[in-house]
Write a structure and sequence with these properties.
mainly alpha; single chain; transmembrane; 228 residues; globular; Mpv17 / PMP22 family protein; transmembrane helix
């Protein structure tokens, strides 16, 4: 194992080990997460999703970082996007069960917060499909725009305060790949089932699991890129 690989694994162990060896740390996490959910969303996505992108770069290019990649800028952007994801998860996890009750399914809001059953699986799937169909395409496109902007700024932190040239970036996006791969393949074949699992989990771990899914997707995309 190379030194950079060892350091990467060490960072992951440092992040996750306390949750498995200390009840006090896990209890603190649940308490802080309950009272400062948006702060935790920023930290979870800022750290984990960025590590996922670094791991994807390691798989595709053999390195975790390179000039212009902009690790710190990506971490800040991911943190902000993570807060948006948390908001979306709250909106859809509350709103979809209420809509299902409006459409005639009794007690959907109670079932989704109860024990596992087929009705809960169906509701979780409905939440995932609604969120990933309505929210995800806008989110993914904006994320692609911010990635492009960071690269255009050479990975510098000034990308965080430099106005994004929306018209130019949107005009030059690879819409064929965005539609035919990102929207038509990753959403139905990865995000629908993955976030169904997310909404079957207790509320306090959903955002953390969603951030971990970002790491998994980064790895899968990197592997797919190497197979082309």
């Amino acid at each position: 194992m190379k030194k950079q690989d060892f350091l990467f694994v060490f960072v992951l162990i440092v992040i996750f080990l306390p949750f498995f060896v200390s009840d006090a740390v896990y209890d603190w996490y649940k308490s802080f997460n309950a009272t400062h959910g948006m702060v935790m969303s920023f930290l979870k996505f800022g750290v984990l999703a960025t590590l996922g992108e670094m791991l994807g770069l390691r798989i595709s290019a053999g390195i975790y970082n390179r000039k212009g990649f902009g690790v710190l800028s990506r971490a800040v952007v991911w943190g902000i996007l993570g807060m948006g994801i948390n908001m979306a998860m709250i909106v859809f996890s509350k709103g979809v069960p209420q809509f299902m009750e409006y459409m005639g399914m009794a007690d959907a809001s109670v079932i989704i917060n109860g024990g596992f059953c087929l009705d809960k699986l169906w509701i979780a799937l409905a939440i995932s499909v609604a969120m990933n169909t309505i929210f995800a395409p806008v989110f993914m496109t904006f994320h692609k725009i911010t990635d492009t902007h960071i690269l255009d700024c050479g990975g510098s932190l000034r990308s965080l305060i430099t106005p994004i040239p929306m018209t130019r970036i949107i005009t030059h996006l690879n819409w064929d790949a965005q539609w035919n791969f990102v929207f038509k393949k990753t959403i139905p074949f990865f995000w629908y089932p993955a976030h169904t699992i997310t909404f079957l989990l207790p509320g306090e771990v959903r955002v953390l699991f969603a951030a971990i899914l970002g790491v998994v997707l980064g790895v899968l995309l990197a592997i797919a890129a190497r197979m082309k």
